[in-house]
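Sequence in, structure out.
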Amino acid sequence: EVQLVESGGGLVQPGGSLRLSCVASGFSFSSSPMTWVRQPPGKGLECLSSITSVSNTDHADSVKGRFTISRDNAKNTLYLQMNSLKPDDTAVYYCAKGWRVDSWSSGDYWGQGTQVTVSS
């Protein structure tokens, strides 16, 4: 059974940091490109950051310099380090299998999502 389980979300003040994790199982994680995607309240999906199996990365302009995607293939785990968080970063954050995933149909597998709320 394929599973992607995100964790690490929560409430954080503007300017703060969070690290999201996504533990994968049931497929060949180490050979798979992966993406972090978010959905702000009342809005559509936004592709944030993608990483190849050998850790080449791509970040959206909206998060470049603030967010960093990484992976530990030995632990089947994907990470998203988020710094300098803003209220506009409030969203449900998902990990998905695929490169530059920006729609529900373009991701092979999805996690259940983790809520990030940036507020004072």
